[in-house]
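Input (structure):
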């Protein structure tokens, strides 16, 4: 899918995926699960969060990245070839979930929302799959609610080691949003292979579907979200593209995290890593092995 010559985030993450021979193709949705599932909403402390729920089997919650929405995951669950129940939500501040400029609404509350959705569905535990910001949210949920998380797959996560390093990274991007410059510098840094005008066009597309003030509030609380993540014995998979500027953070996180497994995708960047064959296979194996251990 192209808009104004720019491949959209939704296309990159969802319906356009790598075929087994490495080419790109539109992947049919076998059960049309996530795409056609009805919207549902849960209210958490006065904040309304949208989610979708479809399929049967072990529950897997999918968490999108900054500026994304649950539809970004359409197509990915069907490639896993593991029976599972698909749950995806709009993180607060994005999509059709409530937006706010109040920093106090974000941070670790993003992880609370994951558990609130599980509570609404009366699910004791679930696997989590998160991309970018969603990976950080999944890591926080695994730390704060270890009894509710069967496993966590963290794809291209902004997994800074501490609050200070996270603050130093996000502060310039917050200033850009507040001053009206959008996400241009962030996208130019994150996706250096984009054509010259690509970051500006993608920024305009993302801000057309999102509120700049809400995104700024989310970014300001990323350091608090980072601080909420601590090494534990949770079943964690890290996947990162070697061409992603955040790649080194996943490598370092894997070293700090006991029992974490790590997969590097050599030719992938921050976005294309999601649709890579290596990522899909790694997530599939994690779900399959975790489900079998639970059954045993």
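Output (sequence):
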């Amino acid at each position: 899918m192209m808009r104004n010559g720019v491949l959209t985030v939704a296309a990159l993450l969802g319906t356009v995926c790598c075929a087994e021979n490495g080419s790109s193709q539109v992947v049919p949705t076998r059960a049309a699960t996530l795409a056609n599932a009805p919207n549902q909403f849960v209210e958490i402390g006065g904040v309304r969060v949208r989610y979708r729920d479809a399929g049967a089997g072990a529950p897997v919650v999918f968490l999108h990245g900054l500026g994304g929405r649950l539809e970004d995951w359409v197509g990915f669950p069907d490639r896993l070839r593991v029976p599972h129940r698909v749950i995806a939500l709009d993180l607060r501040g994005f999509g059709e979930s409530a937006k706010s400029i109040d920093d106090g609404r974000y941070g670790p509350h993003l992880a609370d929302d994951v558990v609130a959705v599980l509570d609404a569905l009366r699910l004791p535990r679930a696997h989590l799959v998160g991309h970018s910001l969603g990976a950080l949210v999944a890591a926080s949920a695994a730390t704060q609610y270890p009894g509710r998380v069967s496993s966590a797959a963290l794809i291209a996560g902004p997994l800074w080691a501490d609050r200070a390093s996270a603050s130093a990274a996000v502060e310039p991007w917050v200033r850009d949003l507040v001053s009206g410059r959008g996400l241009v510098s962030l996208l130019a840094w994150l996706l250096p292979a984009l054509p010259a005008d690509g970051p500006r066009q993608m920024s305009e597309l993302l801000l057309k579907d999102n509120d700049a003030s809400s995104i700024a509030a989310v970014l300001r609380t990323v350091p608090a979200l980072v601080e909420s993540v601590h090494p534990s014995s949770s079943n964690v998979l890290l996947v990162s593209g070697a061409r992603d500027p955040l790649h080194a953070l996943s490598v370092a996180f894997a070293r700090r995290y006991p029992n974490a497994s790590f997969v590097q995708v050599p030719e992938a960047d921050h976005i294309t890593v999601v649709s890579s064959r290596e990522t899909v296979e790694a997530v599939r194996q994690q779900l399959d092995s975790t489900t079998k251990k639970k059954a045993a």
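Notes: The first strand starts at residue 2 and ends at 3. The chain is about 40% helix and 20% strand.
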